Amino acid sequence: MQRLRSVDGQIMLAAYRARLGNTATAHLADGQHILDVPALDHHDVHVRYRPMWDSPLNHGPVPERLPVQQAWAWCFVPDGRVVLVADPGPRGALPMLPGGTVESTDATPEDTLHREAAEEAQLTLTDPVRLGWVLDETGEVYGGVGPNARLRLATRVTAIGPTAVDPATGHPFARLLATPAQAAALLGWGPPGARQAQLAVDTARERWGLPAAARAAIEEIPAEGMRLS
C-alpha cells in the first residue's frame, strides 16, 4: 500500500475486502464507495497480517505450571456465523475474537470470557467449551511474566444487546458477523487459525447442532443489537 498512489491503494483494498467479505462488486469513484459501504470498509478493518505466526493449538488441560492469561472464544450465532469485534484506531480497526485478559476478580477463564464479551460486544453467552490453548513463551504483553497459556473456547451467543462503550477503552467497538473461515482470514493466523476455526465449527455442530455457515457477506451488527431465534 505504501508504494501505491493513495487512490490505487484504496481501490485494491476495497477489492480485497469485497472478496473476503463476499460483498459482490465494489462501486467506487476516486477510490471511495458511491453506493452502500460494506462493513469492512465502513470501519476500515484491516487483516492482522502475521506471516511468521505459527502457534499451534494445544489440546487437553493447561499444565498447572502455566497461568492462563487470556480467554478468547469463537462465539456462534444460530446460523453458524461468529462474532468479531474490531477496535478502531488511527491506522484502522483490528479484528479480534471476543474475550481478553484474565483479571484477579475473575474466578475462572470462563468468567473472563463472559465479562469481556459483555463489555466489548454486549454478548450474552452460554455453554463455553474449551478447545485448547496457545503457548505464550514470554508474556511480554503482560510485562514479561514468562510462559503462560492463552485459552481458546467455543461458545453459543444467546443475546446481542445495543452497542455500548467499552469501559477499558472508553469507546464502542465495531461488531461484525462473519463465517469462521472469514474470521480466521481476518485474524491473520494462517493454517493454524484455519485448523482452529474448523475445530470450533465441528464443536458447534456436534454440541449445539449449529450449521456450518456457508460463504456469506460479512455484516455489521446494528447499534440496537439483534434478536436471536
Number of helices: 5
Please give the oligomerization state of what you see. Answer: single chain
Strand count, sense and barrel status of the largest sheet are:
4 strands, mixed
Strand order of the largest sheet: 6-3-8-7
Main structural class: alpha+beta
Task: List SSEs in N-to-C order.
Answer: HEEHEEEEHEEEHHE
Q: Count the E strands.
A: 10
The geometry reads as globular
| Low-pLDDT runs | none
C-alpha-based Rg, rounded: 18 Å
The N- and C-terminal alpha carbons lie at a distance of: 42 Å
What is the share of helical residues?
A: 25-40%
As a percent range, the share of strand residues is 25-35%
**Average pLDDT value?**
84
In short:
The protein is of the alpha+beta class and 229 residues long.
What does this molecule look like?
The protein is built from 5 helices and 10 strands; from the N terminus they run αββαββββαβββααβ. It is α+β, with helices and mostly antiparallel strands and 229 residues long. The strands form 3 sheets. Strands 6-3-8-7 form a 4-stranded mixed beta sheet. It has a 4-stranded antiparallel beta sheet with strand order 5-4-9-10.
Topology:
Elements (H helix, E strand, L loop, with lengths): L5 H16 L6 E2 L2 E2 L5 H4 L25 E9 L5 E6 L6 E3 L2 E3 L7 H13 L1 E14 L11 E13 L13 E5 L1 H8 L2 H19 L10 E2 L9
Parallel strand pairs: 3-8
Antiparallel strand pairs: 1-2, 3-6, 4-5, 4-9, 7-8, 9-10
